[in-house]
Automatic annotation (TrEMBL):
The keyword Metal-binding does not apply. The chain crosses the membrane at residues 17-35. InterPro entries: ATPase_NBD (IPR043129), Hexokinase (IPR001312), Hexokinase_C (IPR022673), Hexokinase_N (IPR022672). The keyword Cell cycle does not apply. Residues 55-274 form the Hexokinase N-terminal domain. This is Phosphotransferase. Its EC number is 2.7.1.-. Keywords: ATP-binding, Glycolysis, Kinase, Membrane, Nucleotide-binding, Transferase, Transmembrane, Transmembrane helix. It comes from Volvox africanus. Belongs to the hexokinase family. SUPFAM superfamilies: Actin-like ATPase domain. It catalyses: a D-hexose + ATP = a D-hexose 6-phosphate + ADP + H(+); D-fructose + ATP = D-fructose 6-phosphate + ADP + H(+). GO terms for molecular function: ATP binding; D-glucose binding; fructokinase activity; glucokinase activity. It holds the Pfam family Hexokinase_2.
Length: 559
């Protein structure tokens, strides 16, 4: 063992570090031998093991056509059950909630509206002017504001005061700008000045997009069932968000007519439907996921619209599906998905969301990579400084413990929950650089790997791609299930249909859009050439806020 030239540089460094520590018996030799085992390049046997693992995960993550058909059948069953009876709120089945929207936008809505969009720790205020031509937006201004933690975890009245104060400043600014565009006071005739002083401007019309669990009892009223997304303001649960907002607006001296209460999915559907009357489905694929679609009132047997509303509409309404709670035992899941679920805030609930949404894509891929690392020793190397820390921590340990610790060559960041974000996963899937050098840099900076090989980067990219493809495949299944439920494919002839989608995964993960389109085409089967060209996916950026304004306009104008 005195001829160090027979060992690799990493092992020689490890032996020198071990000799520098207090005498620990045969532990240093155990560390050196353990690290030497995993340092040489992967041999053909390891390549075969990697290929077998990738095939195994592909078969588990991507469902066969037969399995997808079974999942879709259960999806349709839950839809029909949810439309016919009240569903227990248990996070294990779709809710199919009435939205009280019986006047669906058709592009003829006009007027000036404001919107408040609260869906997380960032909220948006918007001013919209809907023009005289169909689907015309003549002005649109959006301001995004970050809520301080002490506001979204403090008393409920402080939260709504903060929202009202921001909205007041926004409305005042727009009204001042509009007034400045009119004839200056010094140039007005006495009669104009008298008329101006007597005129009382109408209350601003406001749509409130409040993306939390709300049980609605009217288009502009409901009660909060529970806070999520880190909010914990007391005094709001079981109360009406619209009433709380209206009271806060009165306190700050800017009363408004809050004409519509909705969640972000309903907003996306309403916004795109105003622009495109072929829009039938709104989908969110971001941190979370959900969908809303247009349904016949006759099919919603568990709910009756308020008196007079049915006659004023076209016999259809919007249904908030809460599809993140869907579950079927036939869903394509692997052991690592069970681990993700167990470590989540709501184990055993919202299992469909945990396979689709951005909050969980990166974590599912990370756990699979950890499993592969334990199967293929040395595929993902730890950094030398981490090895040094490992030796220092094990200084007083027995030789057996040191051997076990040294053999655990998985980089510490890779083994840390949450270290692989969905944004990083997206960047890896998009990487087409020579030798996957961009991915290799990310593996070093984000996951703590030491000089990752091209082969290691290729394995990571393949797993990230499979996890994203599964999400796209299941989203395609759900969208097609909705269309089949409504008889779209059986119409003679089938008409064009638009699917509006918002959320960071769909907006920023461009490869995901391609995966979704391909999955839809494949799942249409023999009729793909006929039907796929009729389906249009549209990114509805800021759709939730615009939809809130449009629904408020529809409620006020009556059309």
């Amino acid at each position: 063992l005195t001829d160090h030239t027979t060992f690799s540089p990493v092992v020689r460094l490890t032996m020198r570090l071990a000799l520098a520590l207090p005498v620990i018996g045969t532990g240093a030799l155990a560390v050196a031998l353990a690290l030497r085992k995993c340092e040489p390049p992967l041999v053909n046997e390891d390549d075969k093991k990697i290929n077998d693992l990738l095939k195994r995960y592909k078969s588990r993550l991507l469902a066969s056509p037969e399995r997808l058909a079974e999942v879709e059948a259960e999806f349709l069953t839950q839809m029909r059950e949810g439309l016919s009876k009240r569903v227990v709120v248990d996070g294990k089945r779709m809710m199919m909630l009435p939205t009280f929207v019986t006047r669906l936008p058709d592009g003829t809505e006009t007027g000036e509206c404001y919107a408040l969009d609260l869906g997380g720790t960032n909220f948006r205020v918007m001013h919209v002017r809907l023009g005289p031509r169909k689907g015309q937006v003549t002005a649109c201004d959006v301001e995004e504001v970050t809520l301080p933690k002490e506001i979204y975890t403090g008393p409920g009245d402080k939260l709504f005061d903060y929202l009202a104060t921001t909205l007041k400043s926004f409305i005042d600014r727009h009204r001042a700008a509009a007034a400045a565009a009119l004839v200056p006071p010094s140039e007005r005739s006495p009669s104009q000045q008298m008329q101006s002083s007597q005129d009382q401007p109408p209350l601003p019309v406001l749509g409130f997009c409040f993306s939390f669990a709300v049980e609605q009892d009217g288009l502009a009223s409901g009660k909060l069932l529970a806070w999520t997304k880190g909010f914990s303001c007391p005094g709001v649960v079981s109360n009406d968000p619209c009433a709380l907002l209206s009271a806060a607006l009165e306190r700050v001296g800017r009363p408004c007519r809050v004409a519509a209460l909705l969640n972000d999915t309903v907003g996306v559907l309403a916004a795109q439907r105003y622009l495109d009357s072929d829009t039938e489905i709104g989908v969110i694929i971001g941190t979370g996921t959900n969908a809303c679609y247009v349904e016949r009132l006759a099919a919603l047997s568990k709910w009756e619209p308020p008196a007079g509303d049915e006659a004023s509409g076209d016999g259809r309404t919007a249904i908030n599906m809460e599809w993140g709670a869907f579950f079927s035992p036939h869903l394509p899941r692997c052991m690592e998905d069970l681990q993700v679920d167990a470590a989540s805030p709501h184990p055993g609930k919202y299992l469909f969301e945990k396979l689709l949404s951005g909050m969980f894509l990166g974590e599912a891929a990370r756990r699979i990579l950890v499993s592969i690392a334990t199967e293929v020793e040395g595929l993902f190397q730890a950094r030398p400084k981490d090895v040094h820390a490992l030796l220092a921590d094990a200084r007083d340990a027995s030789s057996g413990n040191m051997l076990e610790a040294a053999a655990a060559t998985i980089p510490k960041p890779l083994a840390t929950p949450g270290s692989l974000s969905s944004a990083t996963l997206s960047a890896i899937v998009h990487d087409c650089s020579w030798g996957l050098r961009k991915t290799r840099r990310l593996l070093v900076s984000e996951l703590g790997m030491h000089q990752p090989s091209t082969r290691a980067a290729a394995v990571v990219k393949e797993i990230c791609t499979l996890v994203a493809k599964r999400s796209a495949q299941l989203t395609a299944m759900a969208v097609l299930a909705i269309l089949r439920h409504n008889g779209w494919a059986d119409a003679s002839p089938p008409r064009p249909v638009t699917i509006a989608i918002d959320g960071g995964v769909y907006e920023r993960f461009t490869a995901y859009r391609t995966m979704l389109s391909k999955a839809v085409s494949e799942q249409l089967g023999e009729r793909s050439a006929e039907l796929f060209p009729l389906i249009k996916f549209v990114l509805s950026h800021d759709g939730s806020a615009l939809g809130a304004a449009v629904l408020a306009a529809a409620a006020v104008t009556g059309h």
